[in-house]
Amino acid sequence: MIARLARVPWGPLVLAAAFCVPAVGSRFYTFLANDIVIWALFATSLNLLVGVTGLVSFGHAAYFGIGAYTTGLLMKKLGLPFLLAFPAAGVLAGALALVFGFFCVRLTRIYFAMLTLAFAQIVWAICFKWNEVTGGEQGMPEIPYPSFEWIAALPLVGGWRTAEYFYFLTLLMVALCLWLLRRIVGSPFGRMLTTIRENAERAEFIGVNVRRYELAAFVLAGAFAGLAGGLFGIFNRGVFPDFAYWTKSSEVLIMTLLGGMGTFYGPAVGAVALIGLNQQIVSYTEYWPLILGSILVLLLFVFPGGIAGAVIDLWRRLARRPAGA
User: Fold this and answer.
1) Are 66 and 93 in contact (CB under 8 A)?
2) pLDDT at site 219
3) CA distance 130 to 132
4) Fewer CB near the last or first residue (10 Å), C or N of the chain?
5) CATH (one of 3.40.50, 3.10.450, 1.10.3470, 3.30.70) for 2-320
6) Could you tell me where the DSSP H helices lie in 145-187?
7) What pLDDT does 64 receive?
8) What is the C-alpha to C-alpha distance for residues 90 and 108, in angstroms, rounded to an integer?
9) What is the rounded CA–CA span in Å between residue 58 and residue 46?
10) How large is the average pLDDT for residues 115-125?
11) Which positions ≥6 away from 187 have C-beta within 8 Å?
């Protein structure tokens, strides 16, 4: 029974269920699902650094903000279509991650984390002060949706609102990005990143250029975070400096820890859990930070592998039980 469940294609099934949300739920649930999907990509991009490579970044929101501003500027001020503006967000975020990462990977542990935070604060300060380009403190409101006229003309998918069409587009883009990240993690390159995480000194001893691999992981993580930011700017109908602020980095790091940074889909689970808990608890009490802190302390002591890690451990225990037990 356990072996059969393990062979179920959970990814496509979850994607198919996500496509049904607008049909079975209200507009609020579509909005909530869209938010979760984008944050799931953002958290999974961070997990490439934290969970796979072993590099703890406190400034990952910088690339999220860069991607959001890139898409917003290209679509609102230059009138470029989404199919050009969206990949440009990943390219520019990856390019700046290459510049910042060149300096960051030269340091280790807490010094690496502090330097990523310093670069992120520089990005935030530029977004906050450069009024002519970024809009400064007021940001850039009224980011337009992509054109969905060609989709609305199709016989089977017509009749939805623009926000719901964007939700479908977000699902497709995020599914493609997660598939690419999955391939990267499962490739020889990804296995080498895991080796570096486990013992960087031994990897360097056998001839691996550890800094080059860490820089490559840094650039890839930044590029995918930029793509998530590009989607979030359109979804939010505006881009603002707090997208690159350190609090966004802390939120996505909490998602990664909550879901389980030792697994590929753990950060996505953390996004679902954190956003879902926030929606439920805030409606009853104003002490959301206190409750979140208590949950994290309990989880880190009882289930250090996060939610996904706890589920996998339970799964393995059931699989090892005798058939007649």
Assistant:
1) yes
2) 97
3) 6
4) C
5) 1.10.3470
6) 149-152, 162-186
7) 96
8) 26
9) 10
10) 94
11) none
Q: What is the pLDDT of residues 299-316, one digit of tens each?
A: 778 777 788 777 777 777
What is the three-class DSSP state of 273? helix
Alpha-carbon distance of 129 to 226, in angstroms, equals: 21
For the chain, the structural domain boundaries read: 2-320
Among 309, 200, 254, 214, smallest CA distance to 58 is for: 254
Q: What angle (nearest 5°) sits at the alpha carbon of residue 7, between those of residues 254 and 13?
A: 60
Q: Over the chain, what is the mean pLDDT?
A: 87
Q: What's the confidence (pLDDT) of residue 322?
A: 59
Tokens of 89: 């967000």
Show the beta-strand stretches assigned E in the chain: 140-141, 238-239
**Pair of tokens at residue 273:** 């859990």
E strand or H helix at 161: none
Structure tokens at 168: 């479908």
- Distance CA(90)–CA(58), nearest Å, equals 19
For the chain, state the CA radius of gyration.
Answer: 20
